[in-house]
Amino acid sequence: MIPEIGHFALILALGLAICQSVLPLLGAHRGSTAMMAVARPAATAQFVFILIAFVCLTWAFLDSDFSVLYVANHSQLSLPTIYKISAVWGAHEGSLLLWVLLLSGWTILVCRYSRGLPAPFSSRVIGVLGILSLGFLLFTLLTSNPFERLIPAPADGSDLNPLLQDPGLAIHPPILYMGYVGFAVAFAFAIAAMISGNLDQKWARWTRPWTTAAWLFLTIGIALGSWWAYYELGWGGWWFWDPVENASFMPWLIGTALIHSLAVTEKRGLFKSWTLLLAISAFSLSLLGTFLVRSGILISVHAFAVDPERGLFILTFLSIVIGGALILYAWRAPGLDSEAGFKPLSRETFLLLNNVLLVIATILILGGTLAPLIVEVFTGEKISVGPPYFDLAFIIPMLPLVFLVGIGMHTAWGMQAPSKLAQLIKKPAIVAIVLGIALPFLIYGSSGALLVVGVVAGIWIMIMAAIQPIGYWRKNGTILSMPRGILGMSIAHFGVGMFVFGVVIVSSFSIEADRGLRPGETVNVAGYDFTLKSLDDIRGPNYTAIEGNFEVRKNGAFISDLRPQKRTYLVQQSPMTEAAIDAELERDIFVALGDPLGDGAWSVRLQYKPMIRLIWLGAFVMALGGIVATSDRRYRATGREH
Amino acid sequence: MRYLFPIIAFGLLIGVFIKGLDPERDLNALPSPFLGKDAPAFDLPKLKNPSERVSSSDYQGVVSLVNVWATWCVGCRQEHEFLKSLAQEESVPIYGINWRDRREDALEWLDVLGDPYIASGYDHDGRVGIDWGVYGAPETFLIGKDGTVLYKHLGPLDRVRWNQDFLPLIQEELENIK
Asked: What is the pLDDT of residues A266-290, one digit of tens each?
């Protein structure tokens, strides 16, 4: 009964999505207040019904109702409760339901915070979001119904993929989707502006907080995914340029570009058509990512069940939404651009460079991701593009960017006096260069050309980002009253610096060793003594495991006990490596069990990863900057202007 | 005109996707030229001992697996444990083609994670991969006693897919020969 209620609620939500898309758009066109007034109630009701459906599916998981096919395939009686909940979005059908739920959630937030905007505009925004919701609800109901029954029901389910039984991965998809779906709002704002043919600086101010909010979720989501790959895949890497990772990274890059170009559009009224194109692209790349992951057109570890019917559906939907948006763009954008120019040395120039470099990086990554497919379609040849291409394709545009960031954020709008700028950057540049050359030698005892460039870049950004908040604090004794937009920008850029610094140090000074160890034996790696005290058989709720009991000491002083496991999940019979990590801000110590070597010995992988925390911490600081910037009073004041 | 560029580029991309979704191009099924036909011959230096060779004649007369792998491939890492358990059961010999990889990386990988392969050939420039129509690692070919390709699986292999797609074919093959 419960699954049928969920199914029925989804069908009702579909009906409401039709109302939400057709009536407000038509009403805005005809100037009918009554029709536009449908937008908010329809969106609210739709959210309620999607939420009901979501709760019903969650219930089916908690209740272990294996007469529901999706539950039977992705759960099991002894699965811990937290993973029964996260299993709801652990595979295609349920994650799609999560996607519509979040889209609907964003929509009611838009309903709530757009009351101060002109009615035709907000109605169009809500209407466009309704169309998107309609498409995804149709997709769910026609090709991917999570409530499909399985009669007769099996006695037990076939368990959730063990790779997904992890706290990091339980929260990674919802947060990532919040980001993906969040770009729908900026997309809807862009479409609404193009329909009305009216794009002014106020439009940019309305759009900015939504874009930043979506971007910060995407930032956290990607960082969580990278962190998960680091400890769960068991080999210490943190980014693999997998097609699905790229699918989440491309909207992030374009979203970052969009945040910056929106700043220009708001402050100077420039880059209008460019900003529109980025707003369309950010969400289009999110949709493209969905298509790539769920159609099976590319191969990836993340790939969901492959089904050509689903692929065709998303492709059709993709063509309508993105194609429609781009046709509208080709028609409307030419009338929107203004003639005003700007001086070569100005913030506009730096933001333009930022955009150009970010877009180049995105195009290169998109090219690399799709190259195997394109080459095969046209020539029948099969090629593969690996990390070496992506590393290079990413570093080339990003290297100039990290140096420009430091200058750009201190450049004035319109025109900057060169002498003042030179004076400002002289000291930080000297400090960054001196530290960049000295630090690797002092701390790690060696250096190299590329390493110095990277360390200088990281320190440079951090110093330049700290100048304004420190200056404000000196003058006013607090930074809390600082304009949030500027404070957020400084924090986010500081995070970029941390990230760059972390990446450079990790890739230069990591130490890895693979050793065979018997209980009682000790090895020394990177100055740490690892003693394997014992190997124990243990039993988890749905797995058995061998657990290594390691004691780590440095110069005789106790550092930590580490207990890496080699698990065998009972239902799927798949072995999993659970690494054990002792994390400190300045280094990780990482122990993973390999395989038995005979005679009671085990192969063990021991790693020392300096500054790896800064990679994720940097991303979280970027996101924190986004939170601070979104809370700027300027954005909340918009409600009272009309 | 420049405002038309985005829609034109997008149109081209959609064209590629439509061709890519063509059901004929079923990634998991074997490209038709090989199904039921002789597997392409190969002759490669052994990964562990470059002075020796591993070639398609090594597995003549035996049902065997040929697994294309690389250290840069996440899916290979994922299926590695399963391949090892398969090797322990000793039901089917597994030959590896180490594809577009660096020898030292590959050797370290086998050292750390264990080696399920009878032998791995070192296909550094991916030439054998092209002969075999390798789309992306990992790929696993099931080769019959007479050297024909019985099945190809693309992506990480696991117990479920093994039981479902490989075992019936192996049993059928063994019975047919009798």
From this structure: 998 889 999 999 999 999 999 988 7
Is the CA virtual torsion A149, A153, A159, A161 positive or negative? negative
pLDDT tens track for B68-90: 888 877 678 778 888 998 998 88
Among the listed residues A339, A195, A358, A329, the one whose alpha carbon sits nearest the alpha carbon of residue A261: A358
Please state, in angstroms and rounded to a whole number, the distance separating the CA atoms of residues A452 and A505: 10
In A288-327, the residues whose Cβ lies within 8 Å of chain B are: 291, 295-297, 299-301, 303, 306, 308, 311-312, 315, 318-319, 322-323, 326-327
DSSP three-state, residue B173: helix
- Asked if A478 has any chain B CB less than 8 Å from its own CB, the reply is no
pLDDT at B30: 46
> What pLDDT sits at residue A581?
92
- pLDDT(A100) > 50: yes
Q: Where are the alpha helices (DSSP H) in A413-561?
A: 418-439, 449-476, 484-509
Residues 6 or more apart in contact with residue A357 via CB below 8 angstroms:
A397, A398, A400, A401, A404
Tens digit of each residue's pLDDT (9 = 90 or more) over A225-265: 898 888 776 566 788 887 888 889 999 999 999 999 999 99
CB contact B1 to A (< 8 Å) = no
Tokens of A552: 């780590």
- Residues with Cβ within 8 Å of A427's Cβ and at least 6 positions away in sequence, in order, are none
Any chain B CB within 8 A of the CB of A597? no
**Predicted pLDDT of residue A306:** 54
Measure the CA–CA gap between A516 and A136, rounded to whole angstroms: 52
pLDDT of residue A639: 46
Q: Is residue B117 within 8 Å of B101, Cβ to Cβ? A: no
- Residue position matching structure tokens 């038309």: B4
Is B133 within 8 Å of chain A by CB?
Answer: yes
Task: Identify the pLDDT of residue A637.
Answer: 54
SS3 B126: coil
- What φ, ψ does residue A476 adopt, rounded to 5°? -115, -5
Q: Are A236 and A287 in contact (CB under 8 A)?
A: no
Neighbours of A516 (CB within 10 A): 17
Nearest CA in chain B to A597: B114
Which of A506, A407, A388 shows the shortest CA–CA distance to A457? Answer: A407
Is 0.95 exceeded by the ipTM?
Answer: no
- Domain covering B28-177 assigned CATH 3.40.30.10 in the classification: yes
In this predicted model, what pLDDT tens digit does every residue of B121-174 receive, in sequence order? 998 777 787 777 676 678 888 988 888 888 888 777 888 888 888 888 888 888
Could A382 and B130 be called an inter-chain contact, meaning their C-beta atoms sit closer than 8 Å?
yes
* A633, A637, A638, A639 alpha-carbon torsion, rounded to 10°: 130
Sequence spans of domains, chain B: 28-177
CA–CA gap between residue A163 and residue A574 (Å, rounded): 10
Task: Tell me how close the Cα of A238 comes to any Cα of chain B, in angstroms.
Answer: 12
Q: Which helix (H) or strand (E) holds A351?
A: helix A347-379
Residue A492: the pLDDT is 97
A516 in B contact zone (CB under 8 Å): no
Task: With CA atoms as reference, report the closest residue to A132 among A103, A108, A111.
Answer: A103
Contact call for B113 and A595, based on CB within 8 A: yes
Interface test with B, best of A187, A384, A565, A571 (most B CBs within 10 A): A384
pLDDT of residue A234: 57
Is residue A52 within 8 Å of A9, Cβ to Cβ? yes
- Residue A183, pLDDT > 70, answer yes
The answer to whether the CB atoms of B14 and A376 lie below 8 A apart is no
